[in-house]
Design a protein that fits this description.
The chain has 147 residues and is mostly helical. It is 65% helix and 7% strand. The chain folds into 2 domains: 68 residues, Arc Repressor Mutant, subunit A (Orthogonal Bundle); 61 residues, no CATH class. β1 and β2 form a beta hairpin. The longest helix is centred in the C-terminal third of the chain and has 32 residues.
């Protein structure tokens, strides 16, 4: 970004202010807000939009039942939802994504466990993460078998 487009004396909002501004934007819009609309509103790059959406999800996840859902098809976009029924398709996809990431992490950690000394802090951490992911996967598979 050039100095001309981003002068040093230009005020930049903090991450908290960016999260609050995104919440305000999504709260005031009942439809889907695209990534480009968010980038324009917050005056930031698409990559920064992803970070602010993540930060807002974390903030809401700690204290609220509201979340930010994303729509991949139909031009994409984000919106706030407060009822599970409205978030169900998104939540189902997030659960499947989480399971895939947990499985990948467990298998990755298996390699690290084999490559590290279990007496070192690094080795102990690798074993703890691998064991935790393995147990979590076992519990998830047990739930799937109940269906």
């Amino acid at each position: 970004m050039s100095h001309y487009n981003n002068p040093p004396d230009k005020w930049k909002p903090t991450r908290v202010e960016q999260v609050n501004n995104l919440f305000d934007l999504l709260s005031n819009d009942t439809g889907w807000v695209t990534r480009q609309q968010i980038a324009d509103y917050l005056e930031m790059s698409h990559k920064s939009v992803d970070r602010v959406v993540r930060d807002l999800r974390i903030t809401l996840g700690v204290s609220d039942s509201i979340t930010v859902v994303a729509r991949i098809n139909k031009g994409g976009g984000y919106r706030l939802v407060g009822r599970y029924e409205d978030a169900a398709p998104w939540a189902t996809g997030r659960i499947a994504d989480a399971e895939t990431r947990i499985e990948t992490l467990q298998f990755s950690m298996s390699s690290v466990v084999k490559a590290t000394d279990g007496r070192t802090v690094e080795g102990k951490k690798a074993r703890l993460v691998e064991m935790s992911m393995r147990h979590l996967l076992e519990q998830l598979l047990a739930l799937d078998s109940q269906i």
